[in-house]
Amino acid sequence: MQTKEIEQYLESHGIKPSYHRIRIFLYLETRKNHPSADQIFQDLLKEIPTLSKTTVYNTLKLFLEKGVVIEILIHEKETRYDADTSMHGHFECMNCNQITDINMDDTGLHFKKLEGFKVSESHFYFKGLCPVCLGSSDKRIIINNKK
Amino acid sequence: MQTKEIEQYLESHGIKPSYHRIRIFLYLETRKNHPSADQIFQDLLKEIPTLSKTTVYNTLKLFLEKGVVIEILIHEKETRYDADTSMHGHFECMNCNQITDINMDDTGLHFKKLEGFKVSESHFYFKGLCPVCLGSSDKRIIINNKK
DNA sequence: ATATTTGCAAATAATTTGCAGTCGA
DNA sequence: TCGACTGCAAATTATTTGCAAATAT
Prior knowledge:
The structure is a homodimer. Chain A is α+β, with helices and mostly antiparallel strands.
């Protein structure tokens, strides 16, 4: 997305497109790295030295309320964020902690409506070892990196 | 499960069945209420006044490592625990915060293996309103209780 | 000029850790 | 007796809050 598009996208969701908001959304949009609030803060701080962590938290909270990002509750310690709000799953590598998008069609996953419930969010995630860490010839990193 | 069975179950998973460990496992087993560490602590404190929260945390960590409980990462604030380690989903009501087990067969959910990944855990959860809160004639509680 | 956005510093809350006392085989 | 289990208190860490300063319309 271009900056112009992001402005429109945010506005269409009732978010005034301030400079910091655009930059944070752009970050999520382009990196697609499912970062924590702190990762966003640390990375953007290099480019925007005046940025404060409170603003990151404020912005993420607003984005969440307005539905332009979703929370990924996959890591015990910290919430991760995703600007892709379409239905998809996630995989967290227990070795490198990278989070990968999982296309639902690829998994063949589907489910019917839950009787009697009003479902507003559906999430699914997996944990294990990603192809990169699996393929590593040095298996020690898998053991040593254990949290 | 009887206390005797729990002792055997814990031992078979490499856990020495101390009094507190048995009581905590029994709590999870019988209530099936997907509690937080604090909920377990508060409830058991009434019956075991000498219990400390550290012991609850220690025990849950051990249970997790030994695979007799799973973590439910569905609530942003706190980790919930489940002694049912079989594959099943969860539903968190955004009104009453109750967590309900979802039988995978009921949802028709299934998925094929993820190519190239070594999957050791699969989780899925839903959020929305449960039948009880949906059926309530006083809709205000749904609005007022909003976190 | 007026409402919104930002940011510092302090507060909160879940969880972890260090360490000493206690208990059970 | 000896190592495992327990628990207090302090530390850590992610997140939130109060409020004042900066900014935008």
